[in-house]
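At your convenience, could you comment on the folded chain following this short note?
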Amino acid sequence: MAIPIQFPFLLRFFFLFSLCSFSVSDSDSPSAQHHHVFPRPLIVEYAGVAEVAEEVRLRCGAWRVAGEANNLGEWKTVPEVCVEYVKEYMTGKGYLVDLEMVSKEAEEYAKSVKLSDDVKDAWIFDIDETLLSNLPYYAAHGYGLEVFDHEKFNDWVETGGAPAIEPSLKLYEDFLNLGFKVILLTGRSERHRSVTVDNLVNAGFKEWDQLILRSSADQGKRAVLFKSEKRNEMEKDGYRILGNSGDQWSDLLGSSLSVRSFKLPNPMYYIP
């Protein structure tokens, strides 16, 4: 269920909305057709609607920031009142600018690191909402309003149509050029290896060192445990995990942590 956001002004919002709806429903009258002007009382009320809309925008922005800071706990869906806000963020410039900021900071850190000669300095990337975007899927499913449906999402994965997240593609290429061993660690199932490889290559991602997916033995594990175990295995193989990029806190937390971690924005879903 969605985490409720208590807006004390919502009753007023619905009252104002009903006034505006009444005004629109009367738009077939001759006076409305010729003048296209709200009566004076509704002009005053319209300012109230704008004020409420701004309050919703601010509170949904605060909800998004709380999610990115991992302050919300395990939330299931985007609050219904925030769906339009999330849509505008994900499809507008804000999401892209935030992605570019994360990539810039990660690249500056990567360039500051002196790599060893044994080619065991690794950078981990998650895949979904980190390298590949599932925004076409989530646009068709309420931008996170719907409870996650594994079967529907698997159907989407099997199309192999997820586009690259462009700032991440550039960062990925830069890391290869710097000499990092790139390891892809994803919660996708092993049965999706072939389609995931094809999707990654078609989107421009190549020359990774390892692609690690969930085996049958990993099914049912919380993401933070699964990814911690896999990072521990990397360390036992001699890798030094210098960086880790992911859109979920479960990509970054747990054990066998990287020296630096970089959280990409994602207000559409949460994976524990």
